Amino acid sequence: MMTTALGVPCQPALITDASRAAEDKTNSYDDGLSAFMSVRRRLFGIAYRMLGSAAEAEDIVQDVWVRWQTADRSVVRDAAAFLVTTATRLAINVVQSARSRRETNVGPWLPEPVDRSADPGLGTEQGEALELGVLVLLEKLSPTERAAYILREAFDYTYRDIANVLRLEQANARQVVTRARQHVTNGRRMPASSTKQRRLLDSFIAAAQHGDVAGLEGLLASEVVSTAASAVAA
Predict the structure, then answer these.
(1) How many Å apart are CA 48 and CA 28, to the nearest integer?
(2) Shortest CA distance to 92 belongs to which of 135, 47, 159?
(3) CA torsion 75→77→82→83, rounded to 10°?
(4) pTM score, two decimals?
(5) Hey, is 3 helix, strand or coil?
(6) Whose CA is closest to 151, among 165, 141, 167, 133?
(7) 28: which of 21, 45, 111, 206 lies 20 to 30 Å off by Cα?
(8) What are the tens digits of pLDDT across the range 20-33?
(9) pLDDT one-digit tens code per residue, 27-67
(10) What is the sign, positive or negative, of the torsion defined by CA atoms of 54, 57, 61, 63?
């Protein structure tokens, strides 16, 4: 039997087993953290595209981390799949909860800006979400509905201001916004050109990030006028 420097007998096997147990415990924690961090940006992107809110997406990511810590990771075969599935389900729960309370949420159609300085990679997530949102608005809404919806939901215009921009009665502006919300959720899709998508996307970003709301107003109003003129000519 071996002895320590103080002459106390010890058993090498027991020391080795204890060391391995401690090492396994440490590795288990490290593996959990590294697996989570490797897909953290992806988790945020999933929640962000579904909810359209950076704050809510971050809450989802934190909830996923808590669940990952309490899960039995030894039985998880694919950590990334587990984390992604968890994030998706949590985001779905948030969406369903909002619908059950009949809350109006821009959702994935017009996501709020995120702080790119904190993580430049999030700019990519926002860009992808905005492209999807603009495409949906082009495919599901008429020019008048699209203009009213964007001005109301993204820039918090009053119904009076919307009416002034689109040359409508205030009551009509309110009805257009209500109809647009319904069509965003349930309306059928119509083909939309990539040129229109890019033009609206660029104008929306310029308004959101640089304050060029007048440019966005002009684009939206011109689309309404152009459509009306085409209808008269037909």
Answers:
(1) 29
(2) 47
(3) 100
(4) 0.54
(5) strand
(6) 165
(7) 45
(8) 544 444 444 455 88
(9) 444 558 889 999 898 888 878 777 767 778 889 999 999 99
(10) positive
